[in-house]
Amino acid sequence: MSTQLRLDALRGSGVIAKPHNARTIAALTRNPGCTRRAVMDAAGVDKDKTAAATGHPASIGKLSPLAVARGQGFEARVKSQGGAELLRLLRENLGLPIPQAHYLDLGGDDDSVIGGRYLRSRSALAASADSGPDAGTLFDHPMLRLQIAGVWVYLEPDMVAFRLEDKFYIIEIKSFAIVDGVADPGDVTRAAIQSSVYVLALRNLLADAGHDPNLVADQVILVCPKDFSNQPTAHFVDVRKQLTVLRRQLARMADIDRLLDSLPDGVTFDLAPDAHGLPTRSAADLAHALRSVEARYAPECLSACELALFCRHDAHDAHSTAALGRTVREELGGVDCTSTAVALGTGTLVPTDDLVQAAETLRAAHALRTAILGQLA
Ligand code: SF4
Asked: Which CATH architecture does the domain made up of 65-247 adopt?
């Protein structure tokens, strides 16, 4: 059976694949070792609906209309007057020597033809790459693309790519605040991962146009509100680490056949919807199908995957140490179950050779806990 037919069967007959965007591609990198997520995303399964059908609806927060409106207002402000405000920021905040810059809006009347906008973006950015290093240009509404499991996904960076001293920069506008030069680390990490998707897509575009992909900087420019005002501020964010993880995960999804080969015969996440689109498949049967595909739950899933509550429930039921977080999983490599960890820490279980180091860590933690409790008593 072809790869596409296998993915269609996983999703369910007649169900349209859920399209990716930069946010969902970025989320792929949050737990790259999870086969369950990789195959479901490759097949375009609607994980939101799947989670709800198991009785564990998605916990990932959706932005309120007010937050969306605030974000749009801030972005419009940064982009206003042909990017004049942005140019000021780049000069004053980042010290970039930009005497002047052109502003080119790559959106247009034919925006419904996404492929056409991609071609227009490619030719404009390639022309800029061909020009002299002082030809600064702000590109608004560019269209990029990436291939995910054999399917082209079109992406629109929040803002523009900018040529500066022989480099293109992705500029990412976010509405979370940077207070006294510091932002919430989780927000910055999410922005960096999403920006790395655009960096990779822009590199592919330049390569597609016959240019050196390394013309795209591996630092992005993050623009956010400053302190508690609506004034923008700009900072460089290094996305090299995120690019490495992203490339690895995309390669894994490109080799989706190998993951599909590891699945049990006939497994499907089909919800068997009725005429009104409501699932007719039982929650137990669907949960059984999900459990037949290996998952690697970690607390990070809670902010990155719609299935997090389902997987967390299973991980807790299995007393999995992985549910305690990556640090614990790495420290306790080979100790999969919390009851084993307790037995090793309290000395009621003699460790095998491969668990000696983990047992030492656990015994030290147990001794520390006992000492602290003794002082509190
Ligand atoms: S929530 Fe479950 S399916 Fe999603 S990434 Fe985590 S372990 Fe994988």
From this structure: Alpha-Beta Complex (3.90)
Q: What is the residue whose two structure tokens read 């269209």? A: 143
User: Domain extents for the chain?
Assistant: 65-247, 327-376
What is the arithmetic mean of pLDDT over 108-136? 76
The residue behind tokens 């299995």 is 318
The beta strands (E) that lie in the chain are given as: 102-105, 137-140, 144-148, 151-155, 161-164, 167-173, 219-225, 232-238
Q: Are the C-beta atoms of residues 156 and 141 closer than 8 Å to each other?
A: yes
Whole-number Å distance, alpha carbon 110 to ligand 1 midpoint, is 38
- What would you report as the CA-atom Rg of the chain, rounded to the nearest whole angstrom? 24
Burial-class residue 142 by CB neighbours within 10 Å (0-12, 13-18, 19+): buried
Amino acid of residue 11: R
What is the atom index within ligand 1 of the atom nearest the CA of 308?
A: 1
Q: What is the mean pLDDT of residues 210-221?
A: 93
Ligand 1: distance of its center to the CA of 158 in Å? 27
Measuring from atom 1 of ligand 1, which residue has the nearest CA? 308
Give the length of the chain. Answer: 377
Out of 24, 36, 245, mutate this one to test ligand 1's pocket (max ligand atoms within 8 Å of CB): namely 36
Report the C-alpha gap between 220 and 195 in whole angstroms: 7
Residue 111 scores a pLDDT above 60: no
The SS3 call for residue 146 is strand
Going from the Cα of 305 to the center of ligand 1, the distance in angstroms, rounded, reads 6
Which helix (H) or strand (E) segment holds residue 14: the answer is none
pLDDT of residue 63: 72
Among 10, 25, 35, 37, residue to substitute to test ligand 1 (most atoms within 8 Å of Cβ) = 37
Compute how many other C-beta atoms are within 10 angstroms of the C-beta atom of residue 10. Answer: 22
Structure tokens at 41: 């995303």
Classify residue 17 by its DSSP letter: P
DSSP-based three-state secondary structure for 323:
helix
Backbone phi, psi, residue 161, to 5°: -100, 145
Is ligand 1 within 6 A of the CB of residue 297? yes
Strand-pairing partners, residue 139, are 104
In this prediction, residue 162 carries a pLDDT of 73
